[in-house]
Design brief:
By secondary structure, the protein is an all-alpha fold. The radius of gyration is 18 Å and the shape is elongated. Helices cover 74% and strands 0% of the residues. The protein is built from ten helices and no strands.
């Protein structure tokens, strides 16, 4: 699947079957980077519906590190709703957690748009992850969480979390007050 010939790559993809393992991930990411929407959707379908949970996580981590910018990640993430109903619950949770973790580890220009798509899929899980970064994240991750909350107009959902953060950590008091419209 690492060949330049599209026919050879397609044969390799179909030879993998429907259930991908962690060893298949580098080849899958290589194929996704060729920007063929049909194969991208095929790969996501199989990842969500029948592959190992660890393959899902490794796929998104390797894909993210292979991209120059995260606009291509938005394209891949935007396909997730097409297959969400058939996804294995453990894979769905793993994918959401992995993408959110990546977004907070290495925020890029389109982080808000990526999180917005994920909110449409599993709002409670995304909120839980954002809350965990507010409570236990690094300074950069807390700032990213506050920026996301503000950019996506989620102040009402996180008001209590932000108020507690602002009262406990004076570094963020002014930022929290600004986000909540108290300043």
């Amino acid at each position: 699947m690492l060949d330049d010939d599209v026919d050879i790559r397609m044969a390799g993809l179909f030879a993998l079957g429907d259930n991908y393992s962690i060893e298949d991930v580098p080849s899958l990411v290589n194929e996704v980077l060729h920007n063929n929407p049909d194969t991208q959707q095929h790969i996501l379908h199989n990842l969500l519906s029948s592959s190992e949970q660890s393959a899902c996580s490794k796929f998104f981590r390797l894909l993210y590190t292979s991209l120059d910018e995260d606009s291509s990640l938005i394209e891949i993430v935007s396909y997730l709703p097409m297959f969400w109903e058939i996804s294995l619950p453990a894979n769905a949770t793993e994918i959401i957690n992995t993408i959110i973790n990546i977004t907070f580890e290495k925020p890029k220009e389109h982080s808000s748009q990526i999180v917005e798509i994920l909110l449409q899929l599993e709002k409670s899980l995304v909120f839980k992850k954002i809350r965990s970064f507010i409570v236990t994240g690094s300074t950069g991750q807390i700032k990213e969480a506050i920026d996301l909350i503000q950019n996506l107009n989620l102040q009402d959902e996180f008001e209590n979390d932000l108020m507690q953060l602002g009262s406990v950590n004076t570094i963020f008091t002014e930022m929290v007050q600004t986000v909540l419209g108290m300043k």
